[in-house]
Design brief:
- This protein has 254 residues and is an alpha/beta fold.
- It has one domain: Muramoyl-pentapeptide Carboxypeptidase, domain 2, CATH 3.30.1380.10.
- Helices cover 12% and strands 15% of the residues.
- The chain has two helices and ten strands, in the order E-E-E-E-E-H-E-E-H-E-E-E.
- The strands form four sheets. It has a four-stranded mixed β-sheet, covered by helices on one side. A two-stranded antiparallel sheet has the order 1-2.
- The protein is globular, with a radius of gyration of 17 Å.
- 46% of the residues are buried.
């Protein structure tokens, strides 16, 4: 599958976040406020699809007649992000912060139940952000009447434990910038998580999950009662995921 993002938009980094270099520089390294945007082709990042995955047709070039035009897609700079260790025991080096809102998404704080999500809960690798933004744009163009997608937690600025001490159930993983929680679309189109399974627009939710799978997600963890499926080695049913899909990409840069 050939993927392409066409527009370039600057992605601002939080001042003082610091780039922890490969040579051992830590949180005290000099911070930068903005990085130069590079043209990014996510096809170079998603090198192959999972075995048995259903191919999802890219929809980046056409929209339905009369559909509202979406704002330009956002490109993601390559800053040499490193996902160190494992998703449940790791850290993040040279991470990027997902903006609180964007052309195809709105972030949501699952603890405070508000938008946007707090800044320190939405960091990931440049590879994860490129992957995520591509799928969100593809989904919105294929479903022109759909509202922006609600995005939950990613990782902390430097990764590491993201447990219940930070509120709610916490996360056993989300530690090295490769995980993101994506809220299922609601049948009523509201920008908040489904209160119950009956609130989930299953057709749109399945379409979204299938696009993550087709784009090369390593795992898509879905709820036990929401009725979503896909290749069993990728789409896995686990508890506490009846209102969102937990997407993980592989760590190909190790």
């Amino acid at each position: 599958m050939s993927f392409r993002l066409t527009a370039l938009v600057a992605v601002a980094l939080t001042a003082g976040a610091g780039l922890a270099g490969c040579g051992g520089a830590g949180a005290g390294a000099s911070g930068i406020e903005q990085v130069r945007v590079l043209r990014l082709n996510p096809g170079a990042l998603v090198t192959k699809q999972p075995r048995g995955a259903t191919t999802v047709r890219a929809a980046l070039t056409t929209t339905a007649a009369g559909a509202p035009r979406l704002p330009p897609a956002m490109a993601v700079p390559q800053v040499g992000s490193l996902a160190i260790g494992r998703p449940n025991r790791g850290r993040l080096v040279n991470g990027l912060q997902l903006p609180g809102t964007g052309p195809d998404w709105v972030t949501y704080d699952p603890v405070l139940h508000q938008v946007p999500n707090r800044p320190d809960r939405r960091w990931g690798t440049d590879r994860l952000l490129a992957f995520l933004l591509f799928v969100l744009r593809d989904y919105r163009l294929a479903n022109p009447g759909a509202p922006p997608v609600l995005i939950g937690d990613l990782s902390l600025p430097y990764g590491g434990p993201f447990g219940s001490d930070l509120g709610g159930l916490g996360h056993a993983s989300h530690q090295n910038g490769l995980d993101v929680d994506v809220v299922y679309p609601r049948r009523d189109g509201q920008l908040r998580p489904p209160d119950r399974v009956a609130d989930v627009d299953r057709a749109l939710a399945q379409d979204l999950v299938s696009r993550f799978v087709g784009a090369g997600a390593q795992f898509a963890f879905v709820g036990t009662r929401v009725g979503l499926g896909g290749p069993p080695e990728v789409v896995q049913v686990i508890p506490h995921h009846n209102d969102h899909v937990h997407v993980r990409i592989a760590n190909w840069r190790r």
